[in-house]
């Protein structure tokens, strides 16, 4: 079957190339004879019209005069006469060369016809591949029955949907991270200060916050995910065009687009985490950690793609900022097609029937453990984002790195974060509460290293690289722990039905709140005392938050007491 399709496709391509190479303006040449009969009829009609040249030209001349008289008000009395004569002269030449015009039109129709045929052939190939994959699934399940392994269709759909969700999380974070090394330097190039950079960048998390509280209970809508993908696609294109703007217009448009971009990103991520929590309730820690691995891998790919584009821009002379965004738009288009074709919504409809009442977050935050955990997670985001937003400017101005090396350095943190999330998924020795406490302390130590001049260390790029490694261990691993920790707290307080929605919402909302407030606070402090002193201040604040969390969170103590009672009985 595939060989037949390949041969038909090969013949169509050869015919298409011959058609393009055979275009000639010889009046004796006839249209391509293998095309449908309607092209020959069009050819005859055009010839009949062209024979009535005088009558036809008079009609066209009157039509052109009427059109340009209508536009006289806009282009002036003198100008419309000139343009009228130009258009009429052009059309007259085309009509007098009717044989050439007829051939051009016929070949254009032939090109369109062949292009449609080619699209049909590609669709047939994709359909055949899909049928082959389906047949392979059938053979696999027949074999599994032979060896007494029972695999349900629900399990197939769960696994396939999880792969799509992993791709969504990866792309959402890759597109976000691509802008971190590129956007702040561009904003500063437009004449804005660090505070202005912080204000523009904070509109993204603001959109995430406002959207996340509303989307937790709407996770079963495939349509919502598609709307988020299309929103990201369109905004990426418009944001690339905004490169040519300056002043207040650039500031307002960039802020608005970042706000809508945050909403679109949340429409992708919140449903993805919530779906995972429902589909894999018995493996929520492992699956969420794997999603965080995909998230961190996306954070690696973002600066990597930006750095490669920056190197290519020196060779081929194009704008890195714009082409990065256009590439993001193309990738979102491809992922949108994957979601339409492969994300099975029937699973989500099952979950939708199982949902309970709406979530009352006022009652949720009455739970002491949840309140303490979410507050510490929020402050972790504030301290981390207060420095990361301005790190690219610091690398360019203080450490004399170019854009490409700056973007590659951003990858250190995210690469380490991937291994941190993997460790969280696989380790069995520590509780989630213990791991999270360690993350707070390690993250605080990493922020201290970003200000080497304040602690007696040389102001060297190697110190910054080491700080990125430590930050990846501490700050980068925290999101992989947060949602399973919240789910554990909610299940302990008999809110198992709502645990996935609350966990996904607070995971996105908590980090987005930090991402919103952190750049503003960081911009104010850096303007006043400089980057190095700000890093020391943020480090001290995060040490204090870790100490308070360790003393006020009693999750492990209560869990150990329950286990002790079970052993006694």
From TrEMBL:
<dbReference type="InterPro" id="IPR050930">
    <property type="entry name" value="MFS_Vesicular_Transporter"/>
</dbReference>
<dbReference type="InterPro" id="IPR011701">
    <property type="entry name" value="MFS"/>
</dbReference>
<feature type="domain" description="Major facilitator superfamily (MFS) profile">
    <location>
        <begin position="460"/>
        <end position="569"/>
    </location>
</feature>
<feature type="transmembrane region" description="Helical">
    <location>
        <begin position="324"/>
        <end position="343"/>
    </location>
</feature>
<dbReference type="GO" id="GO:0016020">
    <property type="term" value="C:membrane"/>
</dbReference>
<feature type="transmembrane region" description="Helical">
    <location>
        <begin position="437"/>
        <end position="455"/>
    </location>
</feature>
<dbReference type="InterPro" id="IPR036259">
    <property type="entry name" value="MFS_trans_sf"/>
</dbReference>
<keyword id="KW-1133">Transmembrane helix</keyword>
<feature type="transmembrane region" description="Helical">
    <location>
        <begin position="407"/>
        <end position="425"/>
    </location>
</feature>
<dbReference type="Pfam" id="PF07690">
    <property type="entry name" value="MFS_1"/>
</dbReference>
<feature type="transmembrane region" description="Helical">
    <location>
        <begin position="162"/>
        <end position="183"/>
    </location>
</feature>
<protein>
    <recommendedName>
        <fullName>Major facilitator superfamily (MFS) profile domain-containing protein</fullName>
    </recommendedName>
</protein>
<feature type="transmembrane region" description="Helical">
    <location>
        <begin position="225"/>
        <end position="253"/>
    </location>
</feature>
<feature type="transmembrane region" description="Helical">
    <location>
        <begin position="499"/>
        <end position="525"/>
    </location>
</feature>
<keyword id="KW-0812">Transmembrane</keyword>
<feature type="transmembrane region" description="Helical">
    <location>
        <begin position="102"/>
        <end position="129"/>
    </location>
</feature>
<feature type="transmembrane region" description="Helical">
    <location>
        <begin position="293"/>
        <end position="312"/>
    </location>
</feature>
<dbReference type="InterPro" id="IPR020846">
    <property type="entry name" value="MFS_dom"/>
</dbReference>
<feature type="transmembrane region" description="Helical">
    <location>
        <begin position="461"/>
        <end position="487"/>
    </location>
</feature>
<feature type="transmembrane region" description="Helical">
    <location>
        <begin position="531"/>
        <end position="549"/>
    </location>
</feature>
<feature type="transmembrane region" description="Helical">
    <location>
        <begin position="195"/>
        <end position="213"/>
    </location>
</feature>
<keyword id="KW-0813">Transport</keyword>
<feature type="transmembrane region" description="Helical">
    <location>
        <begin position="364"/>
        <end position="387"/>
    </location>
</feature>
<dbReference type="GO" id="GO:0022857">
    <property type="term" value="F:transmembrane transporter activity"/>
</dbReference>
<keyword id="KW-0472">Membrane</keyword>
């Amino acid at each position: 079957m595939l060989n037949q399709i390949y041969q038909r496709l090969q013949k169509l391509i050869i015919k298409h190339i011959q058609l393009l190479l055979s275009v000639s303006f010889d009046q004796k040449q006839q249209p391509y004879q293998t095309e449908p009969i309607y092209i020959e009829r069009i050819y005859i009609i055009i010839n009949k019209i062209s024979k009535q040249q005088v009558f036809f030209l008079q009609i066209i001349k009157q039509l052109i005069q009427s059109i340009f008289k209508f536009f006289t008000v806009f282009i002036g009395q003198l100008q419309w006469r000139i343009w009228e004569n130009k258009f009429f002269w052009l059309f007259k030449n085309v009509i007098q060369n009717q044989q050439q015009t007829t051939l051009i039109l016929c070949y254009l129709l032939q090109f369109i016809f062949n292009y449609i045929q080619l699209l049909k052939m590609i669709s047939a190939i994709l359909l055949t591949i899909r049928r082959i994959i389906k047949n392979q699934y059938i053979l696999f399940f027949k074999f599994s029955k032979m060896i007494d392994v029972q695999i349900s269709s629900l399990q197939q759909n769960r696994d396939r949907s999880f792969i799509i969700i992993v791709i969504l999380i990866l792309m959402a974070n890759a597109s976000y991270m691509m802008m971190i090394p590129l956007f702040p330097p561009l904003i500063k190039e437009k004449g804005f200060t660090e505070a202005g950079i912080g204000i523009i960048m904070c509109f993204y998390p603001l959109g995430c916050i406002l959207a996340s509280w509303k989307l937790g209970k709407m996770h079963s809508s495939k349509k919502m995910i598609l709307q988020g993908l299309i929103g990201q696609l369109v905004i990426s294109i418009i944001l690339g065009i905004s490169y040519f703007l300056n002043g207040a217009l650039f500031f307002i448009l960039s802020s608005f687009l970042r706000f809508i971009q945050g909403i679109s990103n949340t429409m992708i991520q919140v449903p993805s985490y919530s779906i995972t929590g429902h589909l894999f309730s018995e493996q929520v820690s492992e699956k969420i950690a794997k999603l965080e691995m995909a998230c961190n891998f996306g954070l690696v790919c973002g600066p990597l793609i930006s750095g490669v584009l920056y190197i290519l821009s020196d060779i081929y002379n194009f704008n890195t900022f714009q082409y990065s965004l256009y590439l993001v738009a193309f990738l979102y288009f491809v992922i949108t097609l994957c979601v339409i074709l492969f994300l099975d919504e029937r699973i989500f409809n099952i979950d939708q029937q199982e949902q309970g009442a709406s979530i009352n977050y006022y009652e949720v935050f009455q739970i002491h453990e949840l309140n303490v955990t979410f507050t510490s997670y929020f402050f972790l985001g504030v301290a981390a984002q207060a420095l990361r937003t301005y790190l690219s400017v610091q690398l360019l101005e203080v450490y004399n790195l170019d854009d490409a090396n700056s973007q590659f350095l951003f990858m250190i943190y995210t690469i380490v974060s991937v291994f941190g999330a993997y460790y969280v998924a696989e380790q069995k020795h520590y509780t989630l509460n213990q791991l999270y406490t360690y993350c707070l302390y390690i993250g605080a130590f990493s922020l201290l290293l970003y200000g080497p001049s304040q602690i007696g260390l040389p102001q060297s790029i190697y110190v910054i690289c080491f700080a990125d490694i430590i930050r990846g261990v501490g700050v980068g691993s925290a999101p992989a722990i947060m949602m399973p920790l919240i789910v554990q707290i909610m299940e302990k307080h008999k809110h198992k039905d709502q645990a996935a929605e609350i966990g996904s919402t607070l995971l996105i909302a908590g980090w987005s709140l930090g991402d919103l407030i952190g750049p503003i606070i960081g911009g104010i402090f850096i303007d006043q005392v400089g980057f190095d002193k700000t890093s020391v201040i943020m480090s001290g604040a995060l040490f204090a938050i870790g100490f308070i969390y360790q003393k006020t969170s009693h999750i492990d103590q209560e869990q150990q007491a329950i286990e002790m009672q079970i052993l006694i009985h």
